[in-house]
Amino acid sequence: MGAKIGSEKLGNLYSGGPVRKRREWRGLKDTIYDFFRWLGIMLMLGKFIVRPRNLKAMFRYRWMSNYLFVPMMIDRHTVGLRGEQLRIAHAEYDLVAKDVAQLLGDCFRADKRCGNDKKFSKKIVILDENEMFTIMCGFPNLKCVSWETAACYVSVLLNGASMTHYLDVVQQMGLPGDVCPMPAAEAGIVIDDDAPIYGACAVQCNTTCDGSLMGNGVMSRFYERNGIPCFQIAAPLRHTEDGVQDYAAQEIRNAIKFIEDNTGEKWNWDAYFKNIKRFNAENKHRFGWMEMSRTKYPQVFGANLALYAETTYMAVAGRAPAFLKADEKITKLAEKAYKKQNLVVKEHRHRAIIWGVQAQYYTDFLPWLQNCWGILPLVDMLSLVYFEKCSENDKDQAIYDIAKLYQEMIMRNRTHGGYEVLLDDLWRFVEYYNADMVILWEHISCKALDGMHGLFEERAREHGVKLVWVNHDLMDPRVVKRQAIRDDVNRYMRSVLREEPLDPTLENIDDEKSY
Amino acid sequence: MKYFGGCDSGSTYTKCVIIDENGKMVADVTLRSRINSVLSAQDALDQAVAKVPELKSAQDLAYLVGTGYGRNKVPFADENISEISCHAMGVHVADPSVKAIIDIGGQDVKGIAVDKDGTVLNFAMNDKCAAGTGRFFEAMARAFEMNLDEFSNLSLKAKNIIPITAQCTVFAESEVISLVGEGKPMDEIAAGIEFSVAKRCFVMAKKAGAVDSITLTGGCAKNAGLKDAIQRVLRLKVIDLPIDPQLMGALGAAEFARQKGLAEGN
């Protein structure tokens, strides 16, 4: 065993239990580096838990126990990586972990049941998990804290089975069992009385689907019962049309006024433009990484791009300088690796676009694709968002920019807006990235994609592109297991392409219980 | 003479085929699968071997390929190959003109597009829901208090079709019982059932890229009523195979075994 990429048979690390047999051997230098980063995360976790209010939260909220698995989650997403690639992944994940720790800290400081800091709570605006935080860029004295992100979105990344209890709760309440598990789980958390209570007000958005509307209804009732006024931004569905933009901008003005009225704070244009400049700069880095993926030597892609870009783009939105610094570091590392023509796995066999909504309980599926079959997940649908630059000095235009960001936020930009943004754009990206394969996530509870099946097949045939359907149920691993997800690819690779895996030990792995 | 075996460990039936080095089928066995798929596969193989006088035991086979739902439970096979590849190869051996297959197994439905050399061009499958599978027909036949053969011919006599609205096996069974209770003609209800499955197959066939003709494989391919419904719903010609369509997976596995065994000099 040595440092060489592919030298470890990665499937052998799975024990069938919750933890793997041992840490991956990446060669002396990389193993030591990885170990110390792991130690750093453990230290952060330890520091977080010893604070009394956080410890209290650990016992009060069922979903909090999932945060014990942060180190394992980072391990899953760095599997097989070496050199600059390993350092890029750690630059991303370690910062996201720190940001989430901050989010949890704020959450429990304000929470009535834990820290109960009333003064601090009055400075908090609650936003949805799947919502742009750009609207907070002009309120430098306010915090925006999304408990949904902490309780649901991140929890399921850490432990794939973390939301099954809440899905059962929501169904016991009488809600249908076949809606999207994300809003269903969020509603389940509220119904189970497992959501922190804090905040001066809440701003929701008509996110992506009927399920989201259902979830938002349950949550707004919860807010109002706890004396937290709630505003719902109704962003237009046909976001590609000019005719709806005036209305969309007015919704943003209304939301800003709502926040001003309920917090006593005034919108600050200087703060907004300062943050939005950073947002533009962050996007520029992201575009640069994605441009690199057009070449033979992509460096920032797959799950690492997807999870980091989601956090930076949606939740940070230019408000935290640390993310821009991390972007600069990642760009430097990527350029260095690119110059050296570094490969991420020993053989790049296929160049794939990942389309559709990923399985939240199996985000390390993309590293598996690389390591098992040599399929490079160049870019994913969720990272292919808003390519325009926001105005950095025009106040009127800025409102329209925020409105556009809301309409075209992650997922919403593809599930709404007509078939062109979902169907036609895919083939444009296939050509742009010179991809020969599309991995099409089929979230079986999401109806937005269902009507398009035949059209996707037809277009794939026209383009001569290999189209692999991968079934999942977003947050419910009981419906489609991780191995069943892998089998969709295994079956295609063996039956249609008749290829042998790069690492045969990964083809069938017993990871159902592993964190 | 060298002999090669293919063992298709299906969810409902286990099939085994032995071919000689010229590709001629010399033995075949179809058994109801038991809960232990290893034992089912062993039984099927032993019975098939017993039909070939030149073979004393399964060890005398030059190469053996396992396939099907429980293919990884065929521990004595030299290799396991997916049932999709084996069905395509089996059909290619039986009739090289076939370009698209609908395989209706006990627990899943697949649409497979076949290339000119018997390899898979594309496929689509439903393995998440029992509707439209062999299990579905078993449930329906049970509701009619008939065996599968009687049930499969029943719809051919129908003058009208009573649509079955429920897609789910469990709900469809309830709907059928209600219709029977209402005194609706049994043959017309049966025709409705066959049509509902044919519509499911339509999705698979289109996803796999079927253009003008298809063939049916799997146990349900023997269902005359379904074949008739598919021809009418899909408006595609259904090509009959010269060999039992339920054996296609095992035959394809045996053909792979023959190709691999001869290439390796076994």
Task: Write the SSE topology.
The complex is a heterodimer of chains A (515) and B (266).
Chain A: H1 28-50, H2 52-60, H3 70-77, H4 83-110, H5 118-121, E1 124-127, E2 143-144, H6 147-158, H7 164-172, H8 181-191, E3 201-205, H9 210-225, E4 230-233, H10 245-263, H11 269-292, H12 302-316, H13 321-339, E5 350-355, H14 365-373, E6 375-380, H15 395-407, H16 412-415, H17 419-432, E7 437-443, H18 447-450, H19 453-463, E8 466-472, H20 482-495
Parallel strand pairs in A: 1-2, 1-3, 3-4, 5-6, 5-7, 7-8
Helix pairs in contact in A: 1-3, 1-4, 4-12, 4-13, 6-8, 7-8, 8-9, 10-15, 11-12, 11-13, 14-20
Chain B: E1 3-9, E2 13-20, E3 25-32, H1 37-50, E4 63-67, E5 79-80, H2 83-94, E6 100-104, E7 109-114, E8 120-126, H3 134-143, H4 148-154, H5 169-181, H6 186-208, E9 213-217, H7 224-234, E10 237-239, H8 248-263
Parallel strand pairs in B: 1-4, 4-5, 6-9, 9-10
Antiparallel strand pairs in B: 1-2, 2-3, 6-7, 7-8
> What radius of gyration of chain A results from the CA coordinates?
22 Å
Q: What does the main sheet of chain A amount to?
A: 4 strands, parallel
Instruction: Tell me the domain tally of chain B.
Output: 2
Describe the biggest sheet of chain B?
5 strands, mixed
The shape of chain B, in one word, is: globular
| Uncertain stretches of chain B | none
CATH fold-level name of the largest domain in chain B: Nucleotidyltransferase, domain 5
